[in-house]
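Let's do one together. I've listed all components of the complex below, 606 residues spread over two lines.
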Amino acid sequence: MNGFDINKQAANVVVWLLLLTAPFWLVSVGGYVELGSRVLIYALAAMALNFLLGYTGVLSFGHAAYFGLGGYGTAMVIKFLYPSTPLAMLVGIVAATLAAAAIGPLIARLRGVYFAMCTIAFGQVFYYISFQWSSVTGGDDGLSAWQRQPINFGVATLDILNDNKAFYYFVLAVFAICVGLMAFLLRSPFGRTLLAIRENERRARFLGIPVDRHIWMSWVISCCFVSVAGCLYALLSDFIDPRAIRWDQSGNFVIMAVLGGMRSFWGPLIGAAIFLVLQDYISSHTENWMSFVGLFFVLIVLFFPRGVLGLIKRKSAS
Amino acid sequence: MSTLLIFNIVNGLIIGAFYALMALGLSLILNLSGVINFAHGGFLAIGGYLAYTLIPYLGFWGALVAAPLLVALIGIAVERVLIRRLYGRDPLYSLLLTFGLAFMIEDGTRFIWGAQSLPYQIPAMLSAPLSSSLFFLTGYRVFMMVLVAAAVIGLFLILNRTRLGLRIRAGTLDLETVSVLGVNVRMLRNLNFGLGIYLAGLAGVLASGMLGLQPTIGDSLIMPSFISIIVGGLGSLPGTLLGGILIGVASGITTVFFPSASEAVIYVIMAAVLIVRPRGLLGEEGRF
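Okay, and this is what the predicted structure of the assembly comes out as:
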C-alpha cells in the first residue's frame, strides 16, 4: 500500500465521520438539519451523474428528467395509491430506470456535443409531460398535500416524518448504499472498462469491447441512481413540481460535479455542499439570485475548471 | 375544418420559420466553433427588448434594422471576452458557460425591463387582416414569413457568394487547413458568432410582436431549435432549415387533431429520426 492509498483511506474515514455526525454540528456552524439532507440528496444526484460524466466520459445534460421521474413516481404512489415510503421509492426508481433504458439505445450511438443535445431534448419531454398533464401531475403547481410515511421495520418504526434527524439518517443510509454500489461497480471489471472507454474509445473498440452497449449500461446505472436522489428530494419537502425536472436542474448537477472535481469520487459531494450553501445564503439576501448562479457558472468554467479536488490533487502532485 | 387546418398549417409554418431562424444561428456557431449556445434564447430576448426601447426613437422599421445589429455587437463582445477562451476544450465547459450566461441574461432583462409582459407596437398597416375569408392571415404574419425567408436567402447568399461565407464553410469542414492557408481563424469565428447572434436578434424583434415580450420569451423556442438541428442533421444548414419548418408544420397539423400533443409530436419526430437515421435528415455520415 503506497502513500496515496493511505491518503485515500483517511479521506474516506473523514468523509463518513463528518456525514455521520452532521446533525450535531450543523446547527452550531449556522446550518440546519434539512440543509444537510439536501446536500446529501444533491450529492447523490451529482455523483450519479459523475458515474457517466467523470468515469465514462459521456456528457449528459438531461439527468433532471430521471431525477424528476423518481420524485414524481414517489409522490404519486403515496398520494394516490398506497402510503408506503419504500414502495413509493421503488416505483419511482423503476419508472425512471425503465425510461432511461428505453431512451438509451437512441442516444448511446452519439458522442460529444450531439449526445449532450439529445439528452437535453429528451429530458424536456418529461418536463412538458409534468407541466401539461395537470390532472395527474398537478401541472405548474406540482404535487403537494401528501406526506412521507414512517418506515416500519417490523421490530421498530423509523419516524422519518416528524423527526428531522431520523430523516437525515434515512437519507444518509440510502446515500451510503448507493455510493457503495457505485464504488463497487467502478472497481469491478465493468467499471475499469468504462474508464478504458473514457481514456481511448477507439482502442477500447479495437480490443473488442462493445462500446455502445457499455455506454448504454453506464447511462442506465447513472440514471437509476439519480432517480434515487429524486425520490429522496420529493420526500424531503413532501412536494415536487416541474422545476425539479427542468433543464436548469440538469445544469445544477453538472456544475456540482465540475465544481467539486469530476475526476474524483467525492468531488461531487464537495461541489454539492458548496453550491447549496452558497445558494441558501444568496437567495436569502437578494432576489436576483439567478444572476449570481449564472455568474457562478461562468466563473467556475473560466477559473476553476478542474474543481476543488482537482486543484488539491494537482498541488500535491507537483 | 379545412379553414382550421389551413390556419394551423400557416401557423406551424410561421412558428417553424422562427425555429429555423434560431436554429440556423445555433447551427452556424456549433458547426464552426463546436459550441452549443444555450444563451441563444437570451440573445433573442435582448433583441426584442432593444427593439421595444428603440421604437419610440427610430420607429418600427428603424428598430427592425438597428436592434439585431446591436445584439450582434453584444454577441461579438461576449465571444471575445468569454466564449473564445473555451475553444478546443471539452464541450462541457462551453455548455456550462452559456448556461450561466442564459441565467444572467434572463435575470438582467427582468431587472432592467421588469418581469411583466410589455406591450409591443407593430405598425397598423401590418396588423390588419389581408382578406375576410382568411381572417387569420394578418399582414404581420405574412410580413414575418417574408422577412424570415429574406433572412434565410441572405444567409445562404453570404455563405455561398462571399469570401467570408466561403471561409466559414471551409472552416466547418477543416478549420486547421483554413488556418494554415492564412485565414485569421479567431476573427472568422468571432464574425461567425456575430452572424449567428444577429439571426437570434432578428428572430427576437419579430417574435415579440407575436408572442409578447417577456424575459422568458426565448424559452419556448430554444428546445425546438435544438430539435430542428438534430432532425435536420448536425453540420448541415439546409438540414437545419428543413428540420425547423418540418417540426413547426407537424406541430401545427397536430394541433388540429390532438391539441395536447402539439408539443409532444416534436419529440416523437426527433426519436423517429434518431432511430432511423441517427445523423439527421441531411447530416453527413460520421461527423459526430
